[in-house]
Amino acid sequence: MSDVSRKVSVIIPVYNAEDYLDDSLGDMLSQTYTDFEVICVNDGSTDNSEVIIENFCRKDDRIRLISQSNCGGGVARNKGYDHSTGDYILFLDADDRFEKQLIEKTVLFMEREKSDVLVFTADEFHYETGIKKPAPWLLQSGYEEYDGNPFHYTTTTVWNKMYRHDYLARNNIRHQDERVTAFSMYFTFFALFYASKIDFLDEVLVHYRSENPRSSMRRHDTSPLDTISVLEAIWNRIKNDEFLMQKREIYFNFAIKNIFERTGWFNSYNSFAEVYEALHRDGFSRIGLTGDCDKYIEDDNWKKLKSEIVNYSLAEYLFLKEKKYKEYGVLTKTVYLLPNKIRQQLSMQNCNIVLYGAGMVGRCYYAQLQSMATVKVVSWVDAKPEDKGFPLLLPEEMKKDSYDYVVIGVEHKRFLSEIKKRLNDIGVAEEKILWELPEKQL
Questions:
Q1: Same domain, 251 and 165
Q2: What is the pLDDT of residues 229-272, one digit of tens each?
Q3: DSSP string covering 416-427, please?
Q4: Do 160 and 19 have their domain in common?
Q5: Confidence class of residue 221 from pLDDT cuts 50, 70 and 90?
Q6: Residue 313 dihedral angles phi and psi, to the nearest 5°
Q7: All residues at 6 or more sequence positions from 19 whose CB lies less than 8 Å from its CB, including other chains
Q8: What backbone phi and psi angles, to 5 degrees, belong to 424?
Q9: Does a structural domain hold residue 1?
Q10: How does DSSP classify residue 402?
């Protein structure tokens, strides 16, 4: 390890994280770089989080505990920041896991490059199964030829970045105190927007726990207007700052992308309708997307969608969308659902799958299998793989030792015996073959 001596402050807000603290704080104490402090801000936890942190504090005085009543993640991070003494800042989450060289690699990189902000990458692992998969949106390709817009390469995720402390203080970059689900958006937007020097490190240093039912990221339906509220706060700061207004093109593209992408996260009609009505009424003007902003927006689809929302009521908008989809044939095709019996069997264990069939049933199954946390599709095969437009193999090309089951995606039972015979002929055991009558959804 280098002899560089720069202190790093790691700030971790904690709310009812008793199941994860042994792992996350254990990862901190295993760091190869030793000059750091971990400030845990207990945000009114009602479980044993505070006791667990106190035990860690007794083990190692680099871990500190601050307790407050439940005020939300933004307040907790600000409080930790206000008590920090490091040259560099990391904001991490209590339920994630960290590589032991996280601090060493990031601080040495920033010392060498004199960065204001360093963006590194991470992967995600499922809350229940532990299965890992990449998270490419955190650091997207092309950063080697940086074009000046950080949001072409990363998101406002706060925990895959290291920040120079004096840079944050000089520009008064803090988290919002308001209780909003997107509270890190404001902070990270300005941390990247003000920066003179942003660098990128393409190494996985954090392992993000996805699908955690306690995560604030899962509460968008309960606070659907939060994104508009945060963007309004960002725009109010930009429009009153001559320096920031020079870069407003970056903000306009950031704002419209976040409005529409985050709206797509809703699971309820009421949440979608509430945001639609707000945007239709005055939401776009509140976040600065009026006047000549369209000439700055890169994606014509976003501009068109914005125009539709402004000009049509929600009922008109939904009617026109349905009419359009029917004209394109999207709503007239039958969707085939993976039978519940097969879905339950595959969800009981982590398994590798070969999908047999690339017709309409197979295509529907493929998307559903890909979305299952316990399933990995290792091959997609069909008796006639040509002209399908997919990377298909012949059944004979299956690797016999790399799968647990073969899921057959055909609609009619009359095809089943022929397919089973072909699979048996190449050595596939009967118990590995799964087929049930597909469920139809019109």
A1: no
A2: 999 999 999 999 999 999 999 999 999 999 998 888 888 999 99
A3: HHHHHHHHHHTT
A4: yes
A5: confident
A6: -70, 165
A7: 95
A8: -60, -40
A9: no
A10: S
